Amino acid sequence: MFKDFHDKYKCIFIHVPKVAGSSIERVIYQTDKWLVGHVKASDYTKFDKDKFDSYFSFGFVRNPYDRVVSAYHYLKNDSPDPCDIKWGRLHINNLTFEEFILSLQDEEFKEEILSKNHFSFQYKYLCDKNMNILVNFIGKFEKLDNDFKKILNILRRKDSLVHINKS
Description:
Number of strands: 3
Order of helices and strands: HEHHEHHHHHEH
Distance between the termini: 28 Å
InterPro entries: Carb_sulfotrans_8-10, P-loop_NTPase, Sulfotransferase
Strand order of the largest sheet: 1-2-3
GO biological process, one term: carbohydrate biosynthetic process
GO molecular function: glycosyltransferase activity; sulfotransferase activity
Organism: Campylobacter coli
Shape: globular
Number of helices: 9
Structural class: mainly alpha
Keywords: Glycoprotein, Glycosyltransferase, Golgi apparatus, Membrane, Transferase, Transmembrane, Transmembrane helix
Number of domains: 2
Largest sheet: 3 strands, parallel
Strand content: 5-15%
């Protein structure tokens, strides 16, 4: 679960899907590789709470409507991941965005959609089951540049954010 880059940079970035995570991860961990994926803060604490607590941990959240729009388009058209492409074809490929939203009234469809990490509630990545925030800092996508600068200051870094994987 913990990787060598966590130890090197003394921080843990919780990558909430469709909230600029790929861009943030690449700057923070100085790589262009896919690293950890969408691991929840609670999973880190279950694995090694002391280590998690000793590192600076952070994540970002996004306006839920904008995130749903982004996830819908990403899974329908833009994902390079074969599993995402297959999932998109199976669940949303034949639906316009309006049809997709209206289909969420069907409980079975809604349950299937919410089981996909791109649509899962954001708090599930950053909080424990009792809704206690587990990370040290939560930034907002809508204030990404400003909040990311705060993180860089905390980490005593002089990098800048490069936006990739926009949807």
